Amino acid sequence: MGRKEGRKEGRKDLAGEALERLRQFGLRYPGAHTKSPWPGHLDLAVNDKTFAYISVAGEPPKISCKLPRSAEVALSLPFTTPTEYGLGKSGWVTATFPDGAPLPEELLEEWIDESYRAQAPKRLSKALPPLADVEVSASGAGSAKAPAGRVKAPARAKAAVPATRRAPAKKTRAKAPAKKAGKKAPAKKARASAAKKRVAG
């Protein structure tokens, strides 16, 4: 085997490893299992309903997912086409990669997530956090507006603090005017009148 052929095989192995990681990622979902309807495929299914067609190692790297929300954006990427056999009409998108090309695993994980939610029974999918909105660049790198699988908690509204009522001012009772002290007779006059009484008596 020449050097070029060895490098080509090595690149295929890298692509096969990436697809296997994606397969293991999909198997983490509730009720997910593998399904092999025909040779060259080891797909992901839930309740026997396929949600990701994934090629096996040694085959051209390919993955197909049902994308009811992001199919239009996904199809703008250079490596995607509507899935064959009429599935493209239902939102299925196929990504095919040339030998040796790195796979955008983060983006493909988001596809698997969206496809699982589209195919899984509600009793299984409702347990998952809401799907994050994803923007896809032309290079195929996905950037989530919110962290995938996490929900931004709505900001808590500050509780309105009621205005503190001022206690009514205490009514101060008007002080009664001080009684004027009676005028005391001068001491000399009092003595004189007492002396007169004695003389008269």
CATH class: Alpha Beta
Helix- and strand-based class?
Answer: alpha+beta
Mean pLDDT: 74
CATH topology, what is it called?
A: Aspartate Aminotransferase, domain 1
The number of helical runs is: 5
What is the name of the CATH architecture?
Alpha-Beta Complex
Low-pLDDT segments? 134-165
Helix residue percentage: 25-40%
Distance between the termini: 164 Å
How many structural domains in the coordinates?
1
Q: How do the strands of the widest beta sheet line up side by side?
A: 1-2-3-4-6-5
Q: Approximately what portion of the residues adopt beta-strand conformation?
A: 15-25%
Which oligomeric form is depicted? Answer: single chain
Radius of gyration: 45 Å
> What's the main sheet like?
6 strands, antiparallel
Query: What's the count of strands?
Result: 8
The dominant shape is globular
- Strand-and-helix sequence, N→C? HEEEEHEEHHEEH
What's the gist of this structure?
By secondary structure, the chain is an alpha+beta fold.
Topology record:
Blueprint: H1 3-26, E1 32-35, E2 43-46, E3 49-54, E4 62-66, H2 71-74, E5 80-82, E6 92-96, H3 105-119, H4 122-125, E7 134-136, E8 142-144, H5 187-200
Antiparallel strand pairs: 1-2, 2-3, 3-4, 4-6, 5-6, 7-8
Helix pairs in contact: 1-3
What do these coordinates show?
- With 201 residues, this protein is an alpha+beta fold.
- It has one domain (3-144): Aspartate Aminotransferase, domain 1.
- It is 30% helix and 16% strand.
- The chain has five helices and eight strands.
- Helix 1 packs parallel to helix 3.
- It is globular and about 40 Å long.
- Mean pLDDT is 74; it is low at 134-165.
